[in-house]
Write a structure and sequence with these properties.
The complex is a heterodimer of chains A (about 300) and B (about 450). Chain A contains twelve helices and two strands; from the N terminus they run αββααααααααααα. Chain A is mainly alpha-helical. Chain A folds into two domains: about 40 residues, no CATH class; about 230 residues, Orthogonal Bundle (MetI-like fold), CATH 1.10.3720. In chain A, strands 1-2 form a two-stranded antiparallel sheet. The two termini of chain A are about 45 Å apart. By secondary structure, chain B is of the alpha/beta class. Chain B has two domains: about 230 residues, Periplasmic binding protein-like II (D-Maltodextrin-Binding Protein, domain 2), CATH 3.40.190; about 200 residues, Periplasmic binding protein-like II (D-Maltodextrin-Binding Protein, domain 2, 3-Layer(aba) Sandwich), CATH 3.40.190. Helices cover about 45% and strands about 10% of the residues of chain B. In chain B, strands 1, 2, 3, 4, 5, 6, 7, 8 and 9 form a nine-stranded mixed sheet that branches. In chain B, helix 10 runs parallel beside helix 12, helix 11 crosses helix 12 and helix 19 runs antiparallel to helix 20. The chains are: A mainly alpha (about 300), B alpha/beta (about 450). The interface between A and B is medium-sized, with 29 and 39 residues.
Chain lengths: ~300, ~450
């Protein structure tokens, strides 16, 4: 009877719980929920900074759905993201497998390999801009040394995105390598020993033991790379500014123009909402893949 | 080139746009320089606002650095304390819009780029009309001599109804840098007309040797002044009296064809992605015969540590087009926030910033091309000027034939973006007429909306 002596006890205790989470709720409400709702609200207006806002309903979204340039920017974003995730993932895996083995100066070489990651993106982009110069750039000079024809790199509408991805690969492959290296270090040795006793080849060891075991780490690397590639702005802005023409204009570049160059806040908000929906869909997909890749 | 900001009659808006396009034609509307000079005398006292403090928003540039360096001199002269902030150009423009919109900007004085911010500031009434100070004998410094200011600069600072919304500080007329050695090797002389310019580019272009006949900006947005330089020479304008775009007119198409020929045919590989820096590095290496850009590049071109063509650079005034000889002009100046509570001290700062000593310093430090004509003679006398004599002559001549290189409209960045994409497409082979028609159709609603807002 003593335990139920206070009928309102549980309810009162629950109320006091709310007090504890209130600060976090207030912060999340102020910095995430309110700005997000406000962005959705603004996306329903035709509003350029300095002029009066007019409610236009879904007109901004209809405009985007028929805007060739915006649709192309989505395509560019996916193209860039796909390359900037897959290639570093493959190269990072190869690098991790190499650096996982024992060889002289391994620590030193691994340190050197991770150095690009420490560089400031804008500085990296400026250096690459000079290297890409079709006449004076060192890249075309290097190509000429091995008898290959000069490339236009970021100055060609066709090659601009692969060239920008090259910078991403150089910059971020080390991060992928570090994540996978961590996974490799944590692997148990017993499966390898028994597989070797059974006469498994090196390829079979990798394919049937290493790869499944490090799959969760690959997924983590893929998630991080996807987030980074989707939000890539600085490198593209500095090197190509979305050009030539609009050949490398991603959603971020388009958004920046709308919001901070044209001050077209209503339209920019609609772009943000659409972009958010795309990211949400991708995040759910990655979450699903991550669940599948878990060790069982 | 603005009328009354409250005057929303369509005619007034159209007139303004027309005048913006025709540039120098509006010079007649300028207040008499002599009259202004005559009023600038009397009981002026630099110490009048002693003890007050003002805030300045500058652009991070050699000119911003120069003014900041000498702020102590202003403080000693006036007893006014200066707080200043220097922000990179793009960010400064964003900051200005956001702060003015808040109705409570943090600055009293702001540096503005006329070709981007003039119409935007005028339309929103963000700046203070300076005539009240200019006409007040006790407020105008004795050396505020408007006759000394280049007309191109005053044209930008003075509205068509006579209001003076800022003091100009620096000019940036577009000129042709040419490689004398390459010209001499092929026996070509500096072109006097557009036709000769194309002809020279054709003769000097040598893909085998990696020499481009012409180099200039192909990157979208940055490339628009190259085309407008040609457009003005063809007698084209940006808009008609009713605010209708003229950017798909016969003149516009002809000038776009010229742009396409010079960059697409006689330009270097990859020029569609070139901004001024790529163009500069090519020209510095002696790999381009002509380079059209703003006048501010003499310093790197004559610097032996950076340039392979020191002493071989010609500084050419823009050749004449079929209708006119025009140098596309860009400029910057300083104005007083309409919201400032310290307009008196702010006006003192403006006068100091554009005074003869500071203008001469701009040349001595190779920080730009000052708007005061006297600065050139003063700098040459001091023997400290780093640019060659030919550059000075080119500057003075170009300033005298200058017209605004971009339309004076609020959405100028969008104008540059839309037409910039069209021009880049032309370099890659698109038809100029089709591209200009598409860009004009795309931009007209944006312009209409901005003038109605």
């Amino acid at each position: 009877m003593a335990a139920v002596a206070h009928p309102g006890f549980l309810a009162r205790r629950h109320r006091s719980y709310y007090l504890f989470i209130a600060p976090a709720l207030i912060v999340i409400g102020a910095v995430i929920i309110f700005p997000w709702l406000f962005t959705v609200w603004m996306s329903l207006f035709d509003w350029t900074i300095g002029s009066v806002a007019h409610f236009v309903g879904l007109a901004n979204y209809v405009g985007l759905a028929t805007n060739q340039r915006f649709i192309e920017s989505i395509v560019h974003t996916f193209y860039f993201t796909a390359l900037a995730v897959v290639v570093p993932l493959i190269l990072g895996l190869v690098a991790a497998l190499i650096f996982h083995r024992e060889f002289p100066f391994r620590g030193l070489l691994r340190g050197i390999f991770t150095m690009p990651m420490m560089a400031t993106p804008v500085a990296v982009a400026l250096v690459w801009t000079m290297m890409f110069h079709p006449q004076q750039g060192v890249l075309n000079y290097l190509l000429s040394l091995v008898g290959l024809p000069a490339s236009l790199w970021v100055y060609s509408p066709t090659w601009v995105i692969p060239s920008l991805v090259l910078v991403e690969i150089w910059h971020w492959t080390p991060l992928v390598m570090l994540i996978i290296l961590g996974g490799l270090a944590a692997l148990p040795t017993e499966p390898y020993e028994s597989a070797r006793l059974d006469g498994a080849s090196e390829w079979q060891l990798f394919r049937y033991i290493t790869l499944p075991l490090i799959a969760p780490f690959l997924v983590v690397a893929a998630v991080i790379r996807t987030i980074d590639a989707l939000k890539a702005f600085d490198t593209i802005y500095v090197i190509s500014q979305g050009g030539p023409g609009t050949a490398s204009e991603t959603i971020n570049l388009y958004l920046y123009l709308q919001a901070f160059a044209f001050y077209n806040v209503g339209n920019a908000s609609a772009v943000v909402v659409v972009f958010f929906a795309i990211i949400l869909a991708l995040a759910l997909l990655l979450l699903y893949v991550r669940q599948r890749a878990r060790w069982t | 080139m603005t009328d009354h900001p409250h005057d929303d009659r369509p005619d007034a808006l159209r007139r303004r746009l027309l005048q913006a396009g025709t540039g120098a034609a509006a010079l007649g509307a300028l207040p008499g320089a002599g009259m202004l000079a005559a009023q600038a005398q009397g009981t002026f006292d630099w110490k009048r606002f002693k003890g007050q403090k003002i805030e300045i928003l500058l652009v991070k540039s050699p000119r911003g650095d120069l003014l900041s360096k000498y702020h102590k001199e202003f403080e000693d002269l006036t007893g006014i304390e200066v707080g200043s902030e220097m922000v990179p150009e793009q960010q400064q423009r964003q900051k200005a819009v956001i702060e003015f919109n808040s109705g409570n900007p943090s600055f009293d004085v702001i540096a503005l780029s006329y070709h981007v911010q003039k119409r935007q500031f005028a339309k929103n009434n963000w700046l203070t009309d300076l005539r009240v100070y200019i006409n007040d004998k006790s407020m105008a410094a004795p050396d505020l001599d408007f006759a000394d200011f280049a007309k191109g600069g005053l044209n930008y600072a003075v509205e068509s109804d006579g209001r003076v919304m800022s003091l100009p500080f620096n000019l940036d007329p577009w000129v042709v840098y040419w490689n004398k050695e390459l010209f001499a090797a092929k026996g070509v002389t500096y072109p006097k007309t557009f036709a000769e310019m194309i002809d020279a580019a054709a003769k000097l272009h040598d893909a085998g040797k990696g020499i481009a006949g012409f180099v200039g900006r192909g990157l979208k947005n940055a490339n628009v002044p190259v085309w407008t330089s040609f457009l003005l020479g063809y007698g084209g304008a940006f808009t008609d009296a009713k605010g209708k775009l003229l950017t798909d007119s016969a003149e516009a198409i002809e000038s776009a064809k010229m742009y396409q020929t010079l960059l697409g045919k006689y330009g270097p590989q990859g020029v569609a992605g070139f901004n001024w820096n790529e163009s500069q590095s090519l020209f510095l290496q002696g790999k381009a015969a002509m380079w059209l850009d703003g006048i501010g590049f003499a310093q790197p071109l004559e610097d032996p540590t950076k340039s392979r063509i020191v002493g071989k650079v010609g500084y050419g005034v823009m050749p004449a087009g079929p209708k006119a000889q025009v140098s596309a002009l860009f400029a910057d100046g300083e104005g007083i926030s309409a919201y400032s509570k310290k307009k008196g001290p702010a006006w003192y700062y403006l006068q100091w910033a554009s005074n003869k000593a500071n203008q001469t310093r701009v040349l001595q430090a190779a920080a730009g091309a000052p708007v005061r004509n006297s600065a050139y003679a003063a700098a040459q006398q001091s023997g400290e000027i780093k640019a060659p004599k030919e550059w000075v002559e080119c500057m003075l001549k170009s300033a005298s034939i200058a017209q605004p290189g971009l339309p004076i409209i609020s959405p100028v960045t969008e104008f540059r973006d839309v037409f910039g994409v069209a021009l880049t497409n032309m370099i890659n082979g698109a038809d100029p007429a089709t591209e200009l028609k598409r860009a004009t159709a795309e931009f007209q609603p944006v312009l209409d909306k901005s003038e109605k807002a």
